[in-house]
User: Which sequence fits this backbone?
């Protein structure tokens, strides 16, 4: 059974930084593509960034390029999201996702496993 657990969310002022972590209870973690999505009430879950199973490829939404960085530590079964230069528009619940696959999906309906989410609030 796959379980993902996010941590690191909270309240931060605009211009600040946060680092989210997502620890996974997955065997063969290093065979999974991993991603971060976010969602605000009334809107569809939005792709933020993703990383391939071997860490060789990363993708990011235009809205976060140059500010957010995804990384993975396979020894710790953990994926990270470093968020810098945060703005109030980044306020959302952030979810990590995983799929045992060789390419890198960028749509929420292409991921099999999800964490419960962590709230990020950016004040102006």
Assistant:
């Amino acid at each position: 059974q796959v379980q993902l657990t996010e941590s690191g969310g909270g309240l931060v002022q605009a211009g600040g930084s946060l680092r989210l972590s997502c620890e996974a209870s997955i065997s063969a973690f290093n065979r999974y593509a991993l991603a971060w999505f976010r969602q605000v009430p009334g809107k569809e879950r939005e792709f933020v960034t993703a990383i391939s199973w071997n860490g060789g490829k990363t993708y990011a939404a235009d809205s976060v390029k140059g500010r957010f960085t995804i990384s993975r530590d396979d020894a710790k079964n953990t994926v990270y999201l470093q968020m810098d230069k945060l703005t109030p528009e980044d306020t959302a619940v952030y979810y990590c996702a995983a799929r045992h696959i060789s390419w890198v999906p960028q749509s929420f309906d292409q991921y099999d496993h999800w964490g419960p989410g962590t709230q990020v609030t950016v004040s102006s």
About this structure: The chain has a mean pLDDT of 97. The first strand starts at residue 3 and ends at 7. Residues 28 and 39 are 28 Å apart (CA to CA).
